[in-house]
Amino acid sequence: MSGHGREAHWGTPITPAVPLSVEGLALDLRPHRRSAEQRRPETARTTGAAALHANDPLFAKTPEHVEQPARPKGCLGKGQQMLQEHCRNVRDRPAFMLLPPLLTFLLLASASVAGVVLGADKFEADTRGRAESAALDWAASFRLSAEKIFTPLVTLSILIQQNPQFPALRAKFPSIAEELLHSVNQERSIIQELQLSPMGVISSIHPKNNNTDSRLGINIFKQPALRGGALDTVVANQIVINGPLKLVQGNFGTIARIPIFISNATANETWGVAAVAPVDCPVSLCFNATTRERFWGFATAVGPLDDLRAGNDTRLDLLKQKGYKWL
């Protein structure tokens, strides 16, 4: 192959001897040697450029030129990084970051308050239930004691109906009453005394005490504090308990009376009681012309309440042990 008057061989570079000119453009195709500056590594030139423009205010550092702070390593470093990111998020989006935990806190607080209230209500209900149970137990014990009063009164009523003559009954009454009191007061003092009141007048009392004589002869129907209860007893024709009230003896207690009616009697029957004994009982109540039943009088039992009122009654021990108080 030939060109420009020379023969070319494969593998031999062709070096033009003279510059070529193409339409007025000068092209120098001769090989150039790189200077020492050009032969320096690229990194060196870059470092030099950076040093050259380090103090140039017009030179703007790109992100890759900005020195990044050293990040801490390990679990502590990760924790600090997460905390910084969280604080940055709270600062940038406070509503989004704070609202969910605030709502969660309010929900948990409401649930806690509701649990405390429910627990307090349950505790109060349980305490009230235990108190009511203890009070009912005491009431049942007191009711049982009160019912023990009925036995002596019913016994006296039967004896009087069989033998209504008062003079003979008066002679036997102390021994009969003593036996009845002994049978009732074995555990505690339930009845402090028994009375017979024919025609409504207190005529016999057992046991006797310092004020027994002062109470003999009192007409129950004429005593303002006693008349109402006495008439109610006659109308009911059954045992009626009045009280608690202050007794003539000076202490507090209850009065249980049973009205006694004698069959086949006349309107003027006295059964040996003095004719001058005041009755002051309405005829419609004290004598039934149809059945010919005549009101004989009362058998009365007086029960003490001083120990109960003072809180010394043994039936209150259970309430005391549980720390309950009463009025």
TrEMBL record:
A single MF term (Gene Ontology): 3',5'-cyclic-nucleotide phosphodiesterase activity
Domain CHASE: 197-308
Keywords assigned by UniProt, alphabetized: Hydrolase, Membrane, Transmembrane, Transmembrane helix
PROSITE patterns tied to this protein: CHASE
Record has Mitochondrion as a keyword: no
Compositional bias of kind Basic and acidic residues: 34-43
Protein name: 3',5'-cyclic-nucleotide phosphodiesterase
Organism: Monoraphidium neglectum
